[in-house]
Amino acid sequence: MEQPSERKPLRADAARNVDKIITAARQCFREQGPDVPLQTIAATAGVGPATLFRNFSDKEQLVLSALSRELRQHVDPVAQAGLDGMDAAEGLFNLIDALMRVASDEANLLSAVAGRRGLLLGITQGLIEAMATLLERGQGQGSLRRDITIEDMVRLVAMLIGAVDTMEPGSEAWKRPVALAEDAIRTERLPRPLPEQSDIPGFSFSGRG
């Protein structure tokens, strides 16, 4: 399947339609969940189904394009700022924070491609490379544990993103597990309290102190 990054340049009117469809997809997924029909997205975008299918062969391609746009807009600049900065550990966790914010805000988009690891890697490869660079630099600076590998980091971030399913979409509940992960990876724990605990939707725990 053609990846979003491989799309050919579009005419101005076609590019506007693509932008409207992706914007509508984000709105519909947020409001109606991961099973929203493509026809609903087309209607919300103000285009016909034929226009949608001319640009996106299926829901998967549309979802990946929407996620790719969110990463380009909200995560890529943070990754670049980290690579340009002096404190690699700070840059690494700013990057993870940005990823987690997108994962929380776009939880329904992620649910629509759950389990499609290869496809998701296709739109995050550049971010993984930035993460690897920041990890290596942080280890050289002595701020990050030397026994952590990029494979560890990819799995850790995948686990953190998976934890979004236990949180209210769009909340900042992800900040606490990210802080716990940061404490485990840094050579010295930051002098700060953990972010506030949040409830798991649908679960009640007795005996919580």
Describe what this molecule looks like in 3D:
The protein has 209 residues and is mainly α. It has 2 domains: 11-57, Orthogonal Bundle (Arc Repressor Mutant, subunit A); 68-185, Orthogonal Bundle (Tetracycline Repressor, domain 2), CATH 1.10.357. Helices cover 64% and strands 0% of the residues. The radius of gyration is 19 Å and the shape is globular.
Please provide a brief summary of the model.
This protein is an all-alpha fold and 209 residues long. Helix content is 64%, strand content 0%.
Question: Layout of helices and strands, plus pairs?
Answer:
Elements: H1 12-32, H2 38-45, H3 49-55, H4 59-74, H5 76-84, H6 88-105, H7 107-112, H8 117-141, H9 150-162, H10 175-185
Helix pairs in contact: 1-2, 1-4, 4-8, 5-6, 5-8, 6-8
Region (Disordered): 190-209
Organism: Paenarthrobacter ureafaciens
GO molecular function, one term: DNA-binding transcription factor activity
